[in-house]
Design goal:
Layout (H helix, E strand, L loop, with lengths): L12 H10 L5 E2 L3 H5 L2 H7 L4 E2 L3 H8 L1 H10 L13 H9 L6 E3 L9 E3 L1
Parallel strand pairs: 1-2
Antiparallel strand pairs: 3-4
Helix pairs in contact: 4-5
Length: about 120
């Protein structure tokens, strides 16, 4: 197996597809969540390029903890209790009434950050 690095933007689908065909890439492995959420796996699959990585719809579950929690709840998948807020004041009022530690997670990609134990 040969591993190489090529500087191609993950947003440049045309260049990625062209590169895969020129180099006869047998399998394209996508790691970061952002390109997956931006549908790169779907685009490459549509061009017949074999991909190791989830579709945009599946990747969105990683990109949005709110979506993941709603999905888990809808399909009875065990998960920790949660509540979502879109207004700061509502969240603060809720937190003030709690008697235990709370984990706060920003919805959306946060590069493994965006979590606070309050």
């Amino acid at each position: 197996m040969v591993t190489s690095y090529f500087d191609i933007s993950h947003n440049n689908y045309y260049e990625i597809i062209s590169f895969c065909f020129k180099k006869s890439i047998d399998l394209f492995v996508i790691g970061p969540s952002n390109p997956l959420i931006n549908r790169i796996a779907d685009v490459l699959r549509a061009k017949g390029i074999m991909i190791f990585g989830p579709s945009r719809g599946t990747a969105r579950l990683e990109g949005s903890k709110g979506l993941l929690k709603d999905f888990s709840s809808e399909f009875n998948i065990p998960t920790a209790a949660y509540i979502q807020f879109s207004k700061r004041d509502e969240a603060i009022n809720y937190f003030k009434k709690q008697k235990f530690q709370i984990v706060v997670k920003t919805d959306g990609l946060a590069a493994s950050e965006g979590i606070v134990i309050a």
